[in-house]
Specification:
41% helix, 122 residues
């Protein structure tokens, strides 16, 4: 009797909704992170600085790093990551909003993750 082989790879999906109540602090933190990134080309740096000054979602995307989520987990090595952030209308009391509302778009989400589109990627 043989045991079916299982993949060593696991897709971890995390969806968060955060409330930004300090846009200036968020942008300042993102600008510091961008300034500290020694590997970012100058042209990309200028674009990134402009984006985080104008958009809280962009600032947040520069501060959130999936590697930080798993770097301390024993026996796990991050192989690939992509993430994005966007401003949304959010009403926690609305029956129309739910964490699984985008399940119909799973295939599109997987394509974006694979292609690295729609957000920051490693």
């Amino acid at each position: 009797m043989s045991t079916p082989e299982t993949s060593r790879f696991v897709r971890l999906r995390v969806e968060l909704v955060v409330e930004v109540d300090g846009s200036g602090e968020l942008a300042s933190s993102a600008l510091r992170r961008i300034a500290e990134d020694e590997h970012m080309p100058a042209e990309e740096r200028v674009h990134a600085e402009t984006a985080v000054k104008e958009d809280d979602a962009e600032a947040l995307a520069y501060l959130v790093d999936p590697f930080d989520l798993v770097s301390g987990v024993p026996g796990v090595e991050l192989t690939q990551a992509s993430w994005s952030s966007e401003q949304i209308d959010y009403d926690p009391d609305s029956p129309d909003w739910g964490p699984d509302e985008d399940d119909d778009d799973d295939e599109a989400d997987e394509d974006m993750a694979r292609d690295g589109a729609g957000g920051r990627g490693l």
